[in-house]
């Protein structure tokens, strides 16, 4: 693939500041109440791994897979559940973990899906949010930071499945036109 030019956008030290604050807020709000933490594959897995190690309450983990189509267009694309939740979450307190909320489509779909399941509560934690791109309004209960509309990779975020392993968040210098490298 063609190598894209990357510029450092959120360094490790800043990510750690967000992690500490988010964990503090979640620990404060839930105290010792057990929590079911649900990560949205694949992007959230690095952030989720770092965040859960800062949580003090009993935590159960699960994952859902979601794929959205048409997210790079202005239209509201469709979201498909590629990996459903294989557990009963009735009466549980749920914390959904996302790396980034962009159009809001993915997380709106997931929150609707979860709220049908007689949970006690559903909260959303996202490391990043791009409010300028929002199509579906979303309330983010725990947010790391708002970012401008740049194409970001690293720390779980990908471009065509690449760059997820980078330990910090980088901006692609040119917004890629194509979906594939
Ligand atoms: C990315 C990101 C969020 C979603 C946000 O996932 O991880 O889940 O897009 O975009 P939205 O708010 O416009 O829906 P993606 O669909 O790229 O899958 P991935 O997590 O496997 O990279
Ligand atoms: Mn994702
Ligand atoms: Mg992606």
From TrEMBL:
An annotated GO cellular component: cytosol
PANTHER family listed in its UniProt record: HYPOXANTHINE PHOSPHORIBOSYLTRANSFERASE (PTHR43340:SF1), HYPOXANTHINE-GUANINE PHOSPHORIBOSYLTRANSFERASE (PTHR43340)
Record InterPro entries: HGPRT (IPR050408), Hxn_phspho_trans (IPR005904), PRTase-like (IPR029057), PRTase_dom (IPR000836)
Gene name of the record: hpt
Limits of the Phosphoribosyltransferase domain: 18-158
Listed SUPFAM superfamilies: PRTase-like
Matches recorded under NCBIfam families: HGPRTase (TIGR01203)
Keyword Repeat attributed: no
Gene3D superfamilies: 3.40.50.2020
Coiled-coil ranges (or none): none
Protein name (database record): Hypoxanthine phosphoribosyltransferase
UniProt family annotation: Belongs to the purine/pyrimidine phosphoribosyltransferase family.
Pfam families: Pribosyltran
GO molecular function list: guanine phosphoribosyltransferase activity; hypoxanthine phosphoribosyltransferase activity; magnesium ion binding; nucleotide binding
Subcellular location: Cytoplasm
Annotated pathway: Purine metabolism; IMP biosynthesis via salvage pathway; IMP from hypoxanthine: step 1/1; Purine metabolism; GMP biosynthesis via salvage pathway; GMP from guanine: step 1/1
Listed cofactors: Mg(2+)
The reaction(s) this protein catalyses: GMP + diphosphate = guanine + 5-phospho-alpha-D-ribose 1-diphosphate; IMP + diphosphate = hypoxanthine + 5-phospho-alpha-D-ribose 1-diphosphate
An individual GO BP term: guanine salvage
